[in-house]
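Bit of a strange request maybe. I'm writing a small parser for structure token strings and I need a real example to test against, not something I typed by hand. Could someone generate the tokens for this chain?
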Amino acid sequence: QVQLVESGGGLVQPGGSLRLSCAASRFTLGYYGMHWFRQAPGKEREGVSCISSSDGSTYYADSVKGRFTISRDNAKNTVYLQMNSLKPEDTAVYYCARGPTCAKPIYDYWGQGTQVTVSS
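Reply from user aminoacidic:
Good idea to test on real output. This should exercise your parser:
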């Protein structure tokens, strides 16, 4: 059964860093567009970043550009989201999702989410 399992969330002070991981099983994530989303309480889900299957191109929401970095380790079948210079408004549950590409808003598998809280 296809699975995506996120980890790495937690409580961090403003300006701090966290690295989220999304471990994939039962498929090779290098063949898919892998996405990170987040959802804060009372807000709509927001696309944060994506890494493409074809050439590893990366895409970011304007709100995280320059602070977050998405990457992929094909040997570990894991995608990462390095989050630096965190702000309170980054507080949310972060999810990874699988899609055919980064260009199409189609997602067939989701992880369970990991909580990120940025607070002093």
